[in-house]
Design brief:
Elements (H helix, E strand, L loop, with lengths): L8 E4 L2 E3 L9 H13 L4 E5 L8 E9 L7 E3 L4 E7 L2 E6 L5 E7 L9 E4 L4 E6 L3 E9 L7 E3 L9 H10 L6
Parallel strand pairs: 2-3
Antiparallel strand pairs: 1-2, 3-4, 4-11, 5-12, 6-9, 6-11, 7-8, 7-10
Length: 176
């Protein structure tokens, strides 16, 4: 596995942090994140550009393999933005009771699709991957507090990725 630049530190198999200073990212960093995601339990890895989970601005470069599953969830008291850098996915929107209310195909800007979203507070959402890898930038306000994320009780938990993929696949015919 490639060696990390000195200004990055490993928090867990899925999370790296920078020192919060200037950081330019190139393909070598993305490749490190892909390598780590490939062996991580949930098949994902993120580089947090902020120095600490208590920072007011949370900016993350996230790499997810198509085997990863994002349980539908919403954020309480905060919005989230997402910008696609590489790969394709569907952003899925749900009502509070689990009905699929929207599907937005997403891809990098050069591919002509939607490449950015702003997810409002309280909107249940997930991602359905259409490429082997999805690389995206996500931002939200901090500090990070897991209790501000509510998962859809009507969907499989992330600890059951096979059930999660089956759940998302069953949605394909639900809404164009």
């Amino acid at each position: 596995m490639d060696e990390l630049p000195a200004r990055l530190r490993t928090i867990s198999p899925e999370v790296l942090y920078s020192d919060g200073g200037f950081l330019a990212v190139d393909g070598s960093i993305v490749e490190i994140l892909k390598q780590r995601a490939g062996v991580a339990p949930r098949r994902r890895c993120r580089l947090c550009f902020h120095a600490d989970s208590s920072d007011a601005q949370q900016e993350m470069l996230i790499v997810m393999h198509r085997d990863s599953y994002v349980q539908p969830h919403c954020h309480i008291g905060k919005v989230e933005t997402l910008s696609i850098i590489e790969g394709t996915a569907d952003a899925l929107l749900f009502s509070a009771d689990g009905a699929l209310t929207g599907t937005v195909p997403m891809s990098p800007a050069a591919q002509g699709g939607a490449f950015f979203y702003r997810m409002p507070e309280g909107q249940y959402h997930s991602l359905r991957f259409r490429s082997e890898w999805l690389v995206f930038l996500e931002t939200t306000i901090g500090p990070f507090d897991r209790s501000t994320t509510r998962t859809g009780s009507w969907s499989p938990p992330e600890t059951e990725p096979a059930a999660g993929h089956a759940f998302l696949a069953a949605l394909r015919g639900s809404l164009a």
